[in-house]
Amino acid sequence: MLQDLVGAIRKRQAILFAGAGVSMTVGLPSWSTLIEHVAEELDLDTSSFREGELNYLTLAEYYRIRQGSIGPLRSWMDRHWTLPEEKLKASKVHELISKLDFPIIYTTNFDRNLETAFDLHGKDYVKIVNAKDIARIREGVPQIVKYHGDFDDDGSIVIAETDYLDRLSFESPLDIKFRSDSLGKTILFIGYSMTDLNIRFLMHRLWKTWNGSGYERDRPQSYVFMLRSNPVEQAVLEQWGLRVLTEKDCPPEKALEVFLTKLCASVEKADEARHLELPRP
């Protein structure tokens, strides 16, 4: 099942799309922790809400209305979501992402942990947050595209409900870049909950683009790694042209590391086999 993905990675024709699950492997707070902090800062009694009535998007929107800006919340997140270099250097997941050498990595994480991991492992990269950064792209240098913004730029952060609804137009500079990057490449989504409506919308739009082109059969295969097997999600995602990958009989907290370890080993094995096939001078 990994053969096509391994081939695309070796040919540098694969894009990695990394979500919050990647950061959570090194102990970063979950969205529920963010909700708890916002509620405490606003002196909001969350016990009066039924389960499912309060989500972080709406709560962040309320925070912006009450506080006048998202700045203080961004500062709190920056302090709590920035890890010591020693912890990142010990992260096997971040090491494997760096080692797999994707030419383009999209991430919806605001934190700088991917960038720091690249620095620690001696990998050059270009960080892209806005249209101005696109002009800084250098041939052969990996791109880390901060699809939902970056802590260094409050205005870039997509965290509140209005931010997400604005992005549904799919017409921002980074959306246009993603459409261009993704049409001819394999995409591997990791670290996402399939309840993330924004990412589901992106997957659906990508499928609709190919479906409407008349060349759907020529679309490169793309993949979603899920921590747990879910036949309902699998059927829906496969309808959109995405192959679902899981690690059977593996604890969810270890699944991503195990998967990336196997993927990296498969790429290295394919490289070694190719090297042995090359004619000697």
Automatic annotation (TrEMBL):
Gene3D superfamilies: TPP-binding domain. Pfam families: SIR2_2 (PF13289). The lineage of its organism: Bacteria, Pseudomonadati, Pseudomonadota, Alphaproteobacteria, Hyphomicrobiales. It comes from the Bacteria. This is Sir2 family NAD-dependent protein deacetylase. InterPro entries: DHS-like_NAD/FAD-binding_dom, Uncharacterised_Sir2-like. Transmembrane segments: none annotated. It comes from Microvirga makkahensis.
